[in-house]
Amino acid sequence: MQPRNMSMSGVVDLAAVKAAQEAKAKAEQARAEAARQGGGAVSAVSPSSLVIDVDEAGFERDVLQRSTEVPVVIDFWAEWCEPCKQLSPLLERLTAEYNGRFVLAKIDVDANQMLMQQFGIQGIPAVFAVVAGQALPLFQGAAPEAQIRGTLDQLVQVAEERFGLTGLTVDPDGEQAGQGEQSAEPQVPAGPYDALLEAAVQALDAGDFGGAVQAYKNVLSDDPGNTEAKLGLAQAELLQRVQGADPQQVRKEAADNPGDVRAQIAAADLDLVGGHVEDAFGRLVDAVARTAGDDRDAARVRLLELFEVVGADDPRVAAARRALARALF
């Protein structure tokens, strides 16, 4: 199964952003429910389920889906690889020591050549992480244990602070789980807008962007602060705007008419959908800097909307906010 939610070069992946927000909301809701019940754990898994063998057929289930609950560290290895024989046992020991803060997925590259190619791996051992559908290269080769610990510490910190993934609760007395067993999913109470949000997601998946926009607006009309609906609306409106557009024609108009704010806005939308985040932001900051009045305000508003799609904690958003401030003042 192709790791379609991955972004190996840091581009925007709308599916991954959505998964991250859903994972964060689920984790926060689960923690709140646990607190109401006296602080008890929301779920527990057996220690053996923290290390799993993964193949191409089970990649989406065992890595992509699981990464919305807990960071998944991937160890690409092969039987003939001598450094792998040093690194793999160390990773397994650290997985047990971190006690549910991440899951270790072991992938034999000889048996899963497609996954090796999709991750762009040139040599093994190679270690990646997947968090809320986003792939992150960690290191290659048999690195020193201290370095590996530092990398894993950063991973679990980012997973918790950015995505709200605090890991799994491990039951040391739990039954031995079979390889590939799915982690127990926290049971959380249904929210009052779950049906509407699910309808919006289904509309997005079906390409009905107008329907998704309306569903998210229905949620926000009753709950203006709903984070998931705000993010979903920004995504759906962006996809609706570029639907049916001729990318070549849009980019030609923007290039031929640098002073046309509407042309620059349309091109910025395409830039973002195509993963060219800095280009989208830079294009609109430039438009703000060289215009005034309604044109300037239109470029500024669209830039703020694109910030919502990418996420406030993305460093590219922070940099663009600074550039926008300079352009305005």
From TrEMBL:
Residues 168-189 are annotated as: Disordered. Residues 40-206 form the Thioredoxin domain. Pfam families: Thioredoxin, TPR_19, TPR_20. GO terms for biological process: cell redox homeostasis; response to stress. PANTHER family: THIOREDOXIN, MITOCHONDRIAL. This is Tetratricopeptide repeat protein. It comes from Streptomyces liliifuscus.
